[in-house]
Amino acid sequence: MEPLTKPRLRNRFTEALGIEYPVVQGGMMWVGRAELAAAVSEAGGLGMITALTQPTPADLAAEIARARTLTDKPFGVNLTILPSISPPPYDEYRQVIVDSGVKIVETAGSSPEPHMPTFAAAGIKVIHKCTSVRHALRAEKLGVTAVSIDGFECAGHPGEDDVPGLVLIPAAADALSIPFIASGGFADGRGLAAALTLGADGVNMGTRFMCTTESPISQTVKERIVAASELDTNLIFRSLRNTARVAKNSISDQVVEILSAGGQFPDVQPLVAGARGRKVFENGDLEAGIWSVGLVQGLIRDIPDAGELVRRIVVEAQTVLTERLRLFS
Fold first, then answer.
1. What are the pLDDT digits (tens) for 94-132?
2. What is the DSSP string of 69-126?
3. The model scores a pTM over 0.85
4. Domains in the chain, CATH or no CATH each
5. Residue 143 confidence (pLDDT) above 50
6. φ and ψ at 108, to 5 degrees?
7. What b-and-e string marks burial along 121-147, b requiring 16 or more CB atoms within 10 Å of the CB?
8. Residue of 170, 169, 178 lying closest to 142 (CA atoms)
């Protein structure tokens, strides 16, 4: 295909992070590897390597080095901090990020506060992922460079407030003074145009980047996302107040049924084991376990190169905004 024209798109987010376009590939477990992150960054967006996808801190160092052989443009590392009986060595992963010279980190899960002094001392810019305005304001006070605000449409954990992006994004714009990007429900240029119009500085996309050629997940999973509609997700763990949006399959149906009948986490723990979800992505067995996907799968209709996708989204956004502005002439 002919190369797409590259419009110029600059704002406080792109300037703060040193990137061309405010299109971010969110850090996703088992998905955020060097090839995908580098392809997004090389196209002018911001790619993310997922730290905990790598089994050890040493493996993370090797993955960062591998990404550097694929692009000389900025990319980041996602560090998701979650409560656990046997937590991974977060401090060691954090030190690898510092020692590697990566200058952008996406934090998610728990508060980034314990990690901020180390990141700040190393000149690392932190984007913290939030599901509410109140959490975003707390992150702002901690000194993060930007926040990523997740609407109820998102894959994974949307929080417990159930506020969709159409309300959450302008609410965040009214409250925050730092740059922020919108997450949940974004797949194309219309979404980027909408996010910018609502007051965000860009978009963060997970499910959409799962469906690219550089994404390391099984082709079967990608094709399932393309074929699925916005109705093909389940919300699990609602009764446990740890809501997660995952693909609708026999396993997630069972989890919903058990918990709706009064079951507790131990009753579903064997069904939701992370190792089972990993088999979905690696082997393409769509019924092996639960796996995260967003409502936006209903808008995904192809599996392009990640770089082509970034460029296409920016061109589409420019076209949409230009055409809509003509309505006022």
1. 999 999 999 999 999 999 999 999 999 999 999 999 999
2. TT-SS--EEEEEE---SS---HHHHHHHHHHHT--EEEEEES-SGGGHHHHHHTT-EE
3. yes
4. 12-214+303-328 (3.20.20.70), 229-292 (no CATH)
5. yes
6. -155, 165
7. ebebbbbbbbbbbebbbbbbebebbbb
8. 178
